[in-house]
Write a structure and sequence with these properties.
The structure is a single chain. With 337 residues, this protein is α+β, with helices and mostly antiparallel strands. It has two domains: 7-105, 2-Layer Sandwich (Phosphorylase Kinase, domain 1); 120-335, Aminoglycoside 3'-phosphotransferase, Chain: A, domain 2. It has helices at residues 11-17, 58-62, 69-74, 120-137, 152-157, 161-169, 176-186, 189-200, 203-210, 246-256, 265-280, 282-286, 290-314, 319-335, and strands spanning 7-8, 25-27, 36-42, 45-52, 86-87, 90-96, 99-105, 215-217, 226-229, 232-235, 242-244. A hairpin with a 2-residue loop joins strand 3 (36-42) and strand 4 (45-52).
Amino acid sequence: MGASGHMAPDVAALLAEHGITAPEAVIAHNGFSGARISRLEHGGATYFLKRMRFEDDWIMRGLDDRTCREAEFAASSIPGRLPAHVRVPYLGAARDGDGWAVLSRDLSHWVFAQDGVEQAETWGAILGALAEMHAAFLAEPLADAGIGWCPWRERITFLSPSSTESLAREGIDFGAPEGWRAFRRVTEQRVQSVIFGLLADPGPLLRVMAQLPATLVHADAKIANMGLEGGTLWLFDWADVTVAPVGLEIGHLLAVNSSRLPWEHDDTLCRYAAHLERCLGSARFSEIGWPRQVAIAALSGFMVLGWAKAREAEAGAREEFEWWCAEAVRAADLLGL
C-alpha cells in the first residue's frame, strides 16, 4: 500500500519510518485552506510535511472531508498502481492528534511558474498522462482503496452562491459572492436557469453522471498542483480525489487553467479525447459516451468557476465566458436538463 503501506499512528512514527530526524520549519505558502506546511532538511534532501484538521480547513468542511482523503490516498495502494507517466510525491501519511499529516518529497525542480501560458508540448504531456491514468482505472473496482472519495454533489456545488455567501460571513471572501451577482448581470436567462438551477439541485446532473463509466480522477487538476519531469506528470494535492466520469476532471481542468492553456477549449477537448482514445482503443473509447462527457465538463466546470468567469467578462474579457455560456446551454439540451 503506497510508499509507507499504512497510516502511521503519529508524525514521529512517520518520520522515523523514513529516518528523518530534522526539525520542522513552518513555511508560508499560497494555499488558503488552513493547512500548515513545514519543510524538513535531512541528509541533503528536502521534505515537506502538510498538517490538516477538519475544524481548521474550510475546504475540508465544504467537501465533507471528515477522514482526510489526501492522507488516505497517500497511505493507500493507489499511488503504487498509477501508470508509468503519473507519479505522486507522497512518502506516507499519519494521524496527527485530531488531524492528519502527509509527508512528501520536494518537487521544486519540476513545478510550474505561477503564471504564463505553457507550451503546447507541455500540455500535450499533461493531457497524455491524465488520459493514461483515466484509462488505467476505467471501470476498475476501487472500493478496496480505503479512501473516502470526494462526493460529486459537494464537488460541483462547493462554490455555489449560498456556500460562498456563508463563507463570506465567516470572513472568507475571495470574490465569489460578487462574481455570482455579476453572473446574473452578464448572462441570458437561459444560462442562469441552467446553472443556478443545477447549483440549487444538482440531482439531474448527478443522475446522468451515474450512468456513465467512471474512473480515478484527481478532480483539481490545475497547473499549480502539477510538476513535469520529462514526460512524467507529478500530481499533488489529492484532496478532491474521487471516482467519476472523466468529464468532471476535464471540465475543472479547462475552467481553472484557462489562462495557462495554449489552445481554445474545443481544441483542448479534442486533444484530450485523442489521447484517451489512443490509450483505450476505439471500441472502449466509444463506450465512455464522449459527447455526454463533454456536456458534464461544460456544466460542472461552469458551476464551480462561473463566478470567476463572470467577473472577467464584466471586466471586458467576454470571449471565454461566451464559450462557457454556449456550451452550458448545449450541454443542458443534450442531457435533457
